[in-house]
From TrEMBL:
InterPro entries: DUF306_Meta_HslJ, DUF4377, HslJ-like_sf, Hsp_HslJ-like. Residues 129-222 form the DUF306 domain. It comes from the Bacteria. Coiled coil: none annotated. This is Heat shock protein HslJ. Residues 35-107 form the DUF4377 domain.
């Protein structure tokens, strides 16, 4: 009797293990996805750069946390891919739930985003790109010896700088006297209360906003409507600055 019960228990355990294995198995599926021509700063298992993707039912661009096996990406090109997507088991909360493998590149399209086409005045463009822009006024308040600044990079339409405490970075877009800041990321240091207040005010002002801008008396000025909200004074780029 004991032997029969032991055999039954063993079979039951093996059956449960088999069922659990079946439930954790996920069959790969083929899907289409569009990869945007630029990547963006994101935070998954840590600060990283993510693909921006759209699926068949997507309205907006979404972050893709992780890579695509077999995919050779070149910035400036928008890709339509046929990929094999497999659900992963035991995935950390801040990691991608799926793994991806490219099966075929369906379309590769060059996206023209040259900065010279969005800033019509080349002298103005050179003036902006060839200087470091130090924050001297924010929301009508003069900033004495402020550590906050911005540097704009021509080639990839990225910017970097300081918000007062932490380094900041992201993308921008110029168009007809306006500038838009997108997907701002930062390091995560703690500083004095005064510096953190400046940083929060500065980043909150810039993030996902479009400003009218002008250059006057060697200052770069940002406006929301007709209100001057930020003023930057120029200085030379330091050697070795990216």
């Amino acid at each position: 009797m004991k032997t029969q019960f032991k055999n039954f228990s063993t079979k039951l355990i093996l059956t449960l293990i088999f069922i659990a294995g079946l439930s954790s198995y996920s069959k790969a599926e083929d899907i289409r996805m569009v990869i945007k021509e630029e990547r963006a700063n994101c935070t998954g298992m840590g600060p990283q750069t993510c693909y921006l993707v759209k699926y068949t039912a997507s309205k907006d661009w979404e972050f893709l946390y992780g890579g695509i096996l077999g995919f050779s990406y070149q910035p400036g090109y928008r890709y339509t891919l046929l990929v094999s997507r497999t659900k992963r088991a035991n995935v950390p909360a801040d990691a991608s739930s799926y793994s991806y493998k490219v099966k075929r590149v369906l379309k590769r399209q060059k996206i023209s985003r040259g900065i010279e086409s969005t800033i019509t005045n080349t002298a103005e463009a050179n003036f902006i790109f060839n200087h470091k822009w130090n924050l001297i006024q924010l929301n009508g308040i003069t900033q004495e010896e402020s550590p906050a600044y911005l540097i704009f990079h021509r080639e990839d339409q990225r910017f970097n700088g300081s918000a007062g405490c932490n380094s900041i970075f992201g993308s921008y877009e110029f168009s007809k006297g306006a500038i838009t800041f997108k997907q701002i990321g930062s390091t995560m240091m703690a500083c004095s209360e005064e510096k953190m207040k400046l940083e929060n005010d500065f980043v909150n002002l810039l993030n996902d906003k479009t400003f009218r801008y002008d250059i006057a008396d060697q200052t770069l000025n940002f406006y929301l409507g007709n209100k001057l909200v930020a003023m930057f004074g120029m200085s030379g780029l330091e050697t070795g600055n990216p």
